[in-house]
Here is the input.
Amino acid sequence: MAYSSCSARLCLTRGSSPKWEGLMTMAMQAFLFSGEIFCLSFAAIFLFWVADRLRSGFLGKP
Here is the structure.
């Protein structure tokens, strides 16, 4: 049986070099983080808008 140590991102086997293609670079992580922050900000603004519309509808004030 050959020695192997595999995970979801990195797979090493005896006599071979690490396969780094599956790892995210720092730039990719930063881009993903920026996208997540943008989406969460948009969702928060939308929720405040909906809450304001509901409040004005219940109170009858613009």
Q: What stands out?
A: DSSP finds one helix and two strands in the chain. The chain has a mean pLDDT of 78. Residues 24-62 form one domain. Helices lie at 26-59.
